[in-house]
């Protein structure tokens, strides 16, 4: 509940709307409730006394009531929508901004998929619940309570019937609502199982065909599919009892009203119009109860969504600017002093006691096996994560003192996973530098050996990349991601294993371009291939998060056994031929 | 990677989002009649259920019509005449009617739910089995999300329609017609007065739906755009951070969000009128009945108080279904459209069927020959041109060439992922289409470039290569593939659960498991398509040893990028632009001094 309350501030700007909506709903419900009473008066006074003008007057009154009800309902609907839509849009905006400024560790904490669901379906769920709350939730209980009160006031003779019928109705609705929650949870599990199976089978269709496992897959699917069917049947059949049951209970109320009414009319304690009005109120009571329970379910389902949203909104970005960030320009001397780092603080450290220094303009190669911590080192430089212990300095100043924007603005980073956006090639590369000219663009593309394939495309730089860049090969993606880093002309250039899918000949051309075009920049090259780093001014050999060797190719070749091992496995002709 | 050319380029298709349950415009099916007939062919299996369900609906609808008639009758004939005994007698009959009505209503749902769920289950099963029988070209052509949504959204729409709408439409029609008859029977003047309201209902509902549909389409479009934007930017958010583009990204988001705010407001407000307007018309109808009815009672034209009571109840019964009808028809329409999309897939051609008397073998020697093989995805863009080569049993063939040259396609023809357009492919002297496809694939082991693992344990994933493999066999295969060394450090070792797509392992580790999976299959012909591309070199050398053991005595096709692996092959095929450029072993090709030699030399020059 705490979570829901902390979203209160998003309603505040629309508080007037949020108050008007239920108030107008009160008007609509009030008018609905008055109608049977007027009807009763028409029958018991107008007809009984043959009073035509009274009937016409009362008829006018009912029509007026109907119009007032329409007014109330319409205005309520407008303001409820206004409140809910604006509320949702504001939350969505705040959520998105919060997430955009999240550090990697924040994102790891929530996982990207959950964050996406949060901002899409959770917000939507909340919006729907709020609309319902403002519209129906007032309507249901109000109709229900109002009808009971009116019966008590105008048809007290028949009121005892309500004392029996209403508790039975309320209990059965409560009971079935509760059960249906449980049943549908089970159905949902079965639905998820079916969806996962289908999704996997679509994604892994090649493997299935290659291994000839069609029948195996079909058998597996049959069992989840049957389970889904069985659970659906059980759930629907049990819940299907509710409707006939409530109708039955209400109908029994009508029977009781007629029975009792007959005696009361005979001993002249009530008029016949009272019975007719009572029957109408009874139906309203049922309707009111049913719709309240529906809304309650909706709201109950929105509470977890609200909790998840609040958790995201309240998460503090882990990496922020220091109090007085330094915005001075960066030349590019990078120094690590006894750096320790672990992604998960309970687990073993990924980096242990890392110390090295690169001067601006130099190239440093980092090599090691998968999982040795190569990528982690370079991810610490733009503060994607912060160190647990030790210091990283750029131009002699600890990096946390720099303004984040300045720091990252001076770094050109091509990450291991070459992610591109669903825009044109030009837009993707210029993402690295808004002010880049067409010449800059072509230069960057040429440096990364991307121009050779871009040139051949019908649309050239205007070629539209699909979501997930499915219309490019792995090597093409890597080349474009490098071009995006190159176009920044950064003080520090970081290539995190960006040529794994690029053929050796192109790689060599890229290396040459980097040496020529980025003389001033400090260059970090992470790779598991000797050929990518052998010409570096300095090479770090990493094993299990520790530096086990440091020096030039020739030095390491003489002294370092790990390095010798790597070299011997890759030999002189260990190059790669194609992508 | 070898993808079919001509892949659609354009903005990502927007997933369908669970919009609010207002009145979205229903999608229309192209051929409603044919689709309906086909849905019926599925329902036919449940004929008894349907017939009895319809019977129950008819009975319960008629009973619910009799109820109000009785109420009026009791008031007029018994209560007003102070006839207590008569009242009790009639009330008991009414009670019986209500009991039967309740039982029948429940029975009808009970039966119909079975009918629809069984039908849906069958349809889902058919669709799934169809997925398994479709040729790969369909999966290239259609997006995975599209196929997925046919299995989920479309089938679900049909389910909703079958389990509720069908019965509701029947009962609505019965109720409306029955109520109409009952009202005319009671008093035609009052009936006409009541029916006067119907044109207003139809007109106003239509207006509202027309307006809200338009806004709804806008709203769905904006929502789709926004969600697409969210998905992409959040998935790629590390790029945003690295390049310091937070402000710009937020600015763009704001534009899309504001657009949605505006369109959502107009859509929600327009559709929100439906409720109050319907309520108003109901009230107006009842007011008319009471007003005119009361005047008629006073004017002594054959209307009694009981008739008014019956009419009020009927009026309530009459309008509710009419209000719902348009909603029902919408559900129904999108269900038919959904069913049509499902049938569209069911009508796709299956993978080629086996020829009659297809050959099955327990062992293939592994002699493979391509004779003038051509292949294309699109006629004007040939992928393979006149490919001919011969591999003797037990040989290792390396395929070399730039991206998109057609290497992967060649091996995909071998296990019949695709069929050649012209030319012949022979294994052990027979054309491959003479073999039973299942038998052939059982004896060809493949490690694909894009490794796919299923959700399940590590053990289950390795065992996928041989379903009846023992735990020891699994472990042995893992050791050969050098997967054992990391598996033993996993939290539950071989019983560690992998998430779908194997995302909690590194790409290299996934490849190792895929190799173990191929090893355990013990195939006669082995295909390795960049099997070790994501494994670091140290590990690769070790796996290579294992693979060398495995390749011993089996015909193997290897697409690799490490020159070392290629050098040792018995035969190297250099493929360029879909044709074989050079062919021979390493020494021969080096002597030829052609493309291959120039590649080698370029790499030598440091």
From TrEMBL, chain A:
Gene3D superfamilies in alphabetical order: ABC transporter type 1, transmembrane domain (1.20.1560.10), P-loop containing nucleotide triphosphate hydrolases (3.40.50.300)
Xref: PROSITE patterns: ABC_TM1F, ABC_TRANSPORTER_1, ABC_TRANSPORTER_2
Coiled coil: none
Primary localisation category: membrane
Span of domain ABC transporter: 334-569
Transmembrane segments: 14-34, 54-80, 136-153, 159-176, 238-260, 272-291
Membrane topology: Multi-pass membrane protein
Key words, A-Z: ATP-binding, Cell membrane, Membrane, Nucleotide-binding, Transmembrane, Transmembrane helix, Transport
Record protein name field: ABC transporter ATP-binding protein
TrEMBL record, chain B:
PROSITE patterns named in the record: ABC_TM1F (PS50929), ABC_TRANSPORTER_1 (PS00211), ABC_TRANSPORTER_2 (PS50893)
UniProt organism field: Lysinibacillus composti
Pfam family, one: ABC_membrane
Residues of the ABC transporter domain: 368-602
Gene3D superfamilies (UniProt xref): ABC transporter type 1, transmembrane domain, P-loop containing nucleotide triphosphate hydrolases
Protein name: ABC transporter ATP-binding protein
Region span, Disordered: 1-29
Cellular compartment(s): Cell membrane
């Amino acid at each position: 509940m705490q979570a829901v309350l902390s979203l209160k501030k998003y309603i505040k700007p629309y508080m007037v709307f949020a108050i008007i909506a239920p108030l107008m709903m009160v008007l609509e419900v009030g008018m609905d409730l008055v109608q049977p009473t007027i009807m009763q008066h028409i029958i018991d006074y107008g007809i009984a006394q043959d009073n035509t003008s009274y009937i016409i007057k009362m008829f006018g009154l009912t029509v007026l009531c109907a119009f007032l009800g329409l007014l109330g309902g319409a205005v309520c609907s407008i303001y409820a929508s206004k409140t809910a839509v604006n509320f949702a849009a504001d939350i969505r905006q705040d959520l998105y901004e919060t997430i955009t400024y999240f550090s990697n560790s924040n994102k790891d904490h929530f996982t990207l998929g959950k964050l996406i669901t949060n901002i899409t379906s959770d917000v939507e769920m909340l919006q729907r619940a709020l609309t319902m709350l403002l519209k129906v939730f007032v309507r249901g209980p109000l109709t229900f309570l109002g009808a009971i009160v009116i019966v008590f006031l105008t048809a007290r003779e028949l009121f005892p019937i309500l004392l029996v019928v209403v508790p039975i109705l309320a209990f059965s609705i409560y009971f079935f609502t509760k059960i249906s929650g449980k049943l549908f949870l089970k159905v949902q599990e079965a639905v998820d199982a079916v969806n996962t199976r289908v999704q996997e089978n679509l994604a892994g269709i090649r493997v299935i065909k290659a291994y000839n496992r069609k029948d195996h897959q079909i058998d597996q699917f049959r069992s989840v599919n049957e389970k889904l069917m069985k659970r659906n049947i059980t759930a629907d059949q049990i819940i299907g009892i509710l409707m006939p049951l409530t109708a039955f209970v209400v109908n029994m109320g009508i029977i009781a009203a007629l029975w009792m009414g007959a005696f009361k009319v005979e001993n002249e304690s009530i008029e016949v119009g009272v019975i007719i009005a009572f029957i109408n109120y009874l139906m309203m009571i049922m309707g009111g109860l049913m719709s309240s329970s529906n809304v309650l379910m909706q709201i109950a389902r929105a509470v977890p969504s609200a909790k998840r949203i609040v958790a995201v909104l309240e998460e503090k970005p882990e990496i922020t600017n220091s109090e007085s960030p330094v915005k001075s320009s960066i030349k590019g001397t990078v120094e690590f002093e006894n750096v320790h780092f672990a992604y998960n603080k309970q687990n073993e450290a990924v980096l242990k006691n890392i110390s090295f220094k690169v001067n601006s303009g130099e190239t440093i190669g980092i090599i090691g096996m998968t999982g040795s911590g190569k990528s982690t080192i370079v991810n610490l430089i733009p503060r994607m994560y912060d160190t647990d212990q030790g210091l990283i300095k750029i131009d002699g100043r600890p990096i946390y003192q720099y303004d984040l924007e300045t720091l990252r603005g001076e770094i050109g980073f091509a990450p291991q996973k070459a992610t591109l956006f669903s825009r044109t090639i030009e837009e993707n590369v210029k993402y690295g530098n808004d002010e880049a000219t067409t010449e800059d663009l072509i230069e960057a593309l040429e440096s990364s050996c991307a121009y050779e394939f871009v040139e051949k495309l019908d649309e050239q730089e205007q070629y539209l990349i699909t979501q997930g860049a499915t219309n490019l090969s792995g090597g093409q993606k890597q080349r474009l991601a490098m071009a995006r880093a190159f176009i920044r002309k950064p003080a520090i250039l970081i290539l995190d294993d960006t040529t794994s899918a690029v053929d050796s000949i192109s790689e060599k051309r890229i290396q040459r371009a980097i040496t020529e075009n980025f003389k001033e920049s400090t260059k970090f090259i992470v790779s598991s291939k000797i050929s990518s780093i052998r010409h570096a001014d300095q090479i770090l050999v990493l094993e299990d998060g520790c530096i086990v060797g440091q020096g030039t190719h020739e030095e390491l070749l003489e002294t370092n056994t790990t390095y010798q091992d790597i070299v011997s496995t890759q030999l002189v002709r260990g190059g790669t031929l194609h992508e | 990677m070898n993808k079919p050319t001509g892949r659609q380029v354009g903005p990502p298709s927007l997933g369908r989002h669970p919009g609010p349950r207002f009145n979205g415009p229903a999608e229309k099916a192209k051929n409603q009649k044919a689709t309906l007939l086909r849905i019926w062919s599925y329902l036919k299996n449940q004929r008894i259920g349907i017939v009895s369900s319809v019977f129950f609906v008819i009975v319960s609808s008629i009973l619910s019509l009799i109820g109000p008639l009785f109420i009026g009758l009791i008031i007029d004939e018994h209560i007003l005449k102070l006839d207590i005994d008569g009242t009790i007698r009639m009330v008991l009959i009414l009670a019986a009617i209500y009991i039967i009505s309740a039982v029948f209503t429940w029975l009808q749902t009970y039966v119909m739910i079975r009918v629809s769920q069984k039908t849906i289950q069958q349809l889902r099963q058919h669709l799934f089995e169809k997925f398994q029988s479709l040729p790969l070209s369909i999966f290239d052509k259609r997006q995975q999300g599209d196929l997925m949504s046919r299995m989920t959204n479309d089938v679900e729409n049909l389910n909703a329609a079958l389990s509720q709408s069908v019965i509701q439409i029947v009962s609505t029609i019965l109720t409306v017609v029955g109520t109409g008859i009952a009202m005319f029977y009671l008093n035609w003047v009052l009936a006409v007065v009541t029916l006067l309201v119907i044109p207003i209902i139809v007109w106003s509902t239509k207006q509202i739906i027309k307006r809200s549909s338009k806004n709804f389409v806008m709203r769905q479009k904006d929502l789709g755009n926004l969600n697409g934007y969210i998905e992409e930017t959040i998935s790629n958010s590390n790029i945003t951070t690295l390049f310091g583009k937070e402000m710009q990204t937020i600015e763009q988001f704001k534009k899309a969000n504001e657009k949605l705010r505006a369109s959502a407001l107009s859509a929600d407000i327009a559709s929100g009128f439906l409720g109050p307007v319907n309520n108003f018309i109901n009230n107006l109808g009842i007011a008319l009945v009471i007003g005119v009815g009361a005047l008629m009672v006073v004017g002594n034209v054959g209307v009694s108080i009981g008739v008014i009571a019956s009419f009020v109840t009927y009026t309530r019964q009459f309008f509710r279904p009419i209000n719902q009808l348009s909603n029902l028809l919408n559900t129904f329409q999108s269900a038919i459209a959904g069913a049509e999309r499902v049938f569209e897939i069911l009508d796709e051609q299956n993978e080629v069927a086996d020829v009659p008397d297809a050959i099955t073998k327990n062992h293939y020697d592994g002699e493979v020959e391509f004779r003038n093989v051509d292949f294309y995805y699109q006629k004007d863009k040939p992928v393979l041109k006149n490919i001919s080569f011969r591999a003797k049993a037990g040989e290792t063939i390396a395929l070399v060439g730039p991206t998109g040259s057609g290497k992967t396609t060649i091996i995909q023809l071998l296990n019949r992922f695709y069929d050649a357009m012209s030319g012949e492919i022979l294994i052990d002297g027979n054309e491959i289409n003479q073999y039973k496809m299942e038998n052939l694939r059982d004896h060809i082991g493949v490690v694909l470039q894009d490794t796919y693992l299923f959700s399940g344990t590590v053990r289950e994933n390795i065992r996928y290569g041989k379903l009846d493999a023992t735990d020891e066999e699994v472990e042995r295969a893992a050791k050969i593939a050098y997967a054992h060394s990391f598996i033993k450090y996993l939290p539950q070792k071989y019983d560690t659960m992998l998430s779908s797509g194997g995302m909690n392992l590194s790409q290299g580790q996934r490849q190792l498991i895929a190799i173990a999976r191929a090893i355990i299959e013990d195939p006669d012909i082995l295909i390795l398509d960049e099997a070790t591309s994501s494994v670091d070199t140290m590990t690769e050398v070790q796996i290579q040893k294992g693979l060398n053991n495995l390749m011993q005595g089996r015909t193997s096709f290897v697409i690799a990028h490490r020159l070392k692996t290629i050098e040792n092959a018995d035969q190297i095929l250099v493929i360029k632009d879909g044709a074989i450029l050079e062919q021979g072993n390493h020494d021969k090709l080096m002597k030829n001094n052609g493309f291959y030699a120039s590649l080698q030399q370029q790499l030598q020059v440091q």
